[in-house]
Hints:
- The chain has helices at residues 3-15, 21-28, 32-40, 62-72, 83-94, 100-114, 169-183, 212-221, 237-250, 260-274, 286-296, 377-382, 400-413, 415-426, 433-446, 451-463, 489-498; strands at 127-139, 142-153, 158-164, 189-192, 199-202, 208-210, 224-227, 256-257, 309-314, 320-323, 326-329, 338-343, 347-352, 355-361, 369-370.
- The strands form four sheets. Strands 1, 2, 3, 4, 7 and 8 form a six-stranded mixed sheet that branches.
- The protein has four domains: 3-114, no CATH class; 127-296, Nucleotidyltransferase, domain 5; 309-371, no CATH class; 377-473, no CATH class.
- It has 17 helices and 15 strands.
Amino acid sequence: MKRVELYQKVRRAVLIDGMSRRAAARYFGIDRKTIDKMLCFAEPAPHGRSGRTYGRKLSGFTDIIDKILGDDRTVHSKQRHTAARIFERLRDEHGFTGGITIVRDYVASARLRSREVFIPLSHKPGHAQVDFGEADGIINGKLVRFHYFCMDLPHSDAPFFKAYPAEVAEAFCEGHVAAFAFFGGIPQSILYDNTKLAVAQILGDGKRERSRMFSTLQSHYLFEDKFGRPGKGNDKGKVEGLVGYVRRHFMVPMPVADSFDALNARFLEQCVERRQAVLRGNSQSIGERMSADLEAFMPLPAVAFDPCHMVTGRASSMSLVRYRTNDYSVPTAFAHREVVIKAYVERVEIISGGERIAVHPRSYEREDFIANPLHYLALLEQKPRALDQAAPLDGWVLAEPMHRIRRLMEARSGKEGRREFIQVLRLCERFDQSLVEWAVGRALDMGAISFDAVKMIALARLEQRVPRLDLQFYPHLPRANVGRTDPRAYMGLLTKTASPAAGVPA
C-alpha cells in the first residue's frame, strides 16, 4: 500500500469514523507515535531529514561538530573528517553517549546547508570564456598527454578548441590568436580563472597583476579581461562545460593523429559541425545564435599578434643557446654572441643582429640537446679530427654513397681526404641533402671522387645541363687527344671538289 493511501485510511478511520488512536495502531500495525504524525499531516514528508530536530543526546555537541566541519574547509579534501570519524572524536574526546546514526544525520544536514546556491545567469552577445583541459592521445605513434585550449561564447555556446603539447604561455596566447581568426573578430570581454598564464599575482580588493605576455596580448587586441573567484570554477561554468563536452565527445576513444597539425585540423572541422546543433531551451542553432555574437565583436587588427616568448641570451663557446634548461645550437660563427630567443609553441627561433640564424623544433623535455649538424661543419673543416666524435652529428642519417665516398677520399688522401669529405657535407648548407646524396652517387659512377665533381654535378642538376668537369683535377681518368682542325683545311676540300680528281679522264 502506498504511503499516501495509508495516510488517507488512517486519518479517515480516526477523524471520521471515530476509531481510537490505540485501536488504529493495532488495526493498521503502526506505532502509536506514527499514528499521531499521520493525524498531523495529510501526506508523508518528502524523502530526507531536512526538517528533523535532534534529540537531547546531541544537544551541546552540535557546536563541536560545526567547528570540525568549518575547520575541514581549510585542509586537503582527502584529509577531511568523515561522519564516522566525527562520532569517534565526540565519543573519545567529549564523552558523547549517543549513537552514530544521529551524528551521521546531523553531519549530512550540516553539509547540505553549507552547499552553495547559484542564480541562473543570462549572457549578452559578444563575450567569451577561456580555459584549458587535458587528455591523452596517440601523436605520431607515441602516447602523449596533451592540453587543449577552449574558448566558449556563452550567448550562443559556439565553441573553439585546439590541442597543444603543453599548457604554456605561448600556447595560451596562440590559442587566442587562433580563436579570434576562427570567429572572425574579438570578444568585448573574456572571463578566466586565476591561471598563472594570465595572472602574475592576486592583489587585494579583487585586483590582479597581469603577466607580461598576457598584457601584451591584451594591449594588441584591446579586449577587457575578467577573472573568477579563486577556487570557484562555476564562475565560468560555460567554458567548464565545454572542456568536459570536448573530452567526452572528441577524446573518447583516444584520438590518434600523425601530428598536432593533423589533430587540430580534425578539431577545427568538429568546431564548425557543432554550429548545427540546437541546444535544449533554444529554437535556433548555435550558428544562428552566433550571428549576434559576431555583430557585437570588435574587428581584427591588420596584423595578428606574434605569440612567442622573447628573451635575450648568449651563445656559449660550444655554439649553444640555453632556453628553459634545453640547449639549442647556432652556427659556430655566432659563438659568444648576444642573441634574441623567440620561443613559439612548436619551434624556437634564434636571432642575431636582426638575422634569424637558427630554427629548431621546440623540446618540452628537461636538459635536452637539440643541434643542427650543419651548424658545426665550418668548424669541423678546420678541425677534421673531431669528425667522428662530434656530438651534433650523432643521429644524422646519411645515404650509403656518402659513407662510400668518405672511405675512398680518406683512403686516397688521409687527413686531407677527411677534410674534403667535410666539404662535401657542407654542400648541404646550400642544397637539399637529397640532391647532394644524388650528386655523390653520380660522381661515384663516373669515378670522379672529389668535392669539385660533386659540386659541379649538383649545380648541373639544378640548372638542368650536362656537367663539364675540369679534367686537370682527375689525372687518373683516361684521356682522348683530339686534334684541332685548321679552318684553312676546308678551303682545300672545296678546291678539290671543284677540279677533276687526279687519274680520272675528263
